[in-house]
């Protein structure tokens, strides 16, 4: 299983229009026949005017095949893409391999935090080893949704996704974790391995399976 994380930056003021096209046309045409939509979100804190969507595929080869089939679908190429392309400023994608199994929330009503950490060159496996070991401690406070590392795009990168009821819960959880001696020990030994840390708070898009 591989995952593709796609981030589209929209023309300011066009987010509502894009989401309408995505819900009414894009999802109807594509469905999960050309890859499975895991979740889609709009950014709330961090870079704004962005649409983030996460797809899963059985393999790299199957992703290539399915995207080739999608490119032959005239409802997609002639009915959907011409509507959204004028609304896009930039597109970015990353191909990810799963480090820990995906754990989508069973219920709805969440704020999601997408955290991207870039390690120093060659240090991603070491950082991930520490992170996997500390996960039972961290998940006492909130549940991880997903954990991946990049295979294509920016290398030496780890991507993790978390779900919270709201931003107040996120703040409370992170404050609690920072007081935990085991978490403090993890931070002390893992932080020197990192070159950059980024975080984006996101809200589920109307067509997102993950709510």
Give structural notes.
With 211 residues, the protein is α+β, with helices and mostly antiparallel strands. The protein has two domains: 95 residues, Alpha-Beta Plaits (2-Layer Sandwich), CATH 3.30.70; 107 residues, Alpha-Beta Plaits (2-Layer Sandwich), CATH 3.30.70.100. Helix content is 36%, strand content 36%. The protein is built from six helices and eight strands, in the order βαββααββαββααβ. It has an eight-stranded antiparallel beta barrel with strand order 1-3-2-8-5-7-6-4. A hairpin with a 4-residue loop joins strand 6 and strand 7. The longest helix has 16 residues. The protein is globular. The two termini are 22 Å apart.
List the helices and strands and how they pair.
Elements: E1 2-10, H1 15-30, E2 36-45, E3 50-57, H2 60-70, H3 74-84, E4 88-100, E5 111-119, H4 124-138, E6 144-152, E7 157-164, H5 167-178, H6 181-190, E8 194-204
Antiparallel strand pairs: 1-3, 1-4, 2-3, 2-8, 4-6, 5-7, 5-8, 6-7
Helix pairs in contact: 1-3, 4-6
Radius of gyration: 18 Å
> Helix and strand succession?
EHEEHHEEHEEHHE
Quaternary arrangement of the chains shown? single chain
User: What name is given to the CATH topology of the largest domain?
Assistant: Alpha-Beta Plaits
Can you tell me the overall shape?
A: globular
Number of helices: 6
Distance between the termini: 22 Å
CATH architecture of the largest domain: 2-Layer Sandwich
Strand order of the largest sheet: 1-3-2-8-5-7-6-4
Instruction: Give a count of the beta strands, DSSP E runs of length 2 or more.
Output: 8
Overall structural class, as computed from helix and strand content, comes to: alpha+beta
């Amino acid at each position: 299983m591989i995952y593709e994380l796609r981030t589209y930056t929209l023309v300011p003021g066009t987010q509502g229009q894009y989401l309408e096209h995505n819900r009414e046309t894009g999802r109807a045409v594509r469905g999960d026949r050309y890859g499975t939509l895991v979740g889609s979100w709009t950014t709330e804190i961090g870079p704004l005017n962005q649409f983030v969507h996460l797809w899963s595929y059985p393999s790299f080869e199957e992703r290539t095949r399915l995207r080739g089939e999608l490119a032959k679908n005239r409802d997609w190429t002639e009915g959907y893409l011409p509507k959204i392309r004028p609304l896009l400023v930039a597109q970015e994608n990353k191909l990810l391999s799963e480090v820990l199994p995906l754990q989508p929330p069973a219920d709805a009503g969440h704020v999601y935090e997408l955290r991207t950490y870039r390690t120093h060159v060659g240090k991603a496996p070491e950082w991930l080893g520490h992170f996997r070991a500390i996960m039972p401690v961290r998940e006492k406070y909130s549940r991880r949704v997903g954990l991946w590392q990049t295979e294509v795009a920016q290398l030496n990168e780890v991507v993790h996704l978390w779900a919270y009821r709201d931003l107040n819960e996120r703040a409370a959880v992170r404050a609690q974790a920072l007081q935990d001696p085991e978490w403090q020990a993890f931070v002390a030994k893992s932080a020197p391995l990192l070159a950059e840390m980024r975080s984006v708070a996101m809200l589920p898009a109307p067509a997102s399976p993950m709510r």
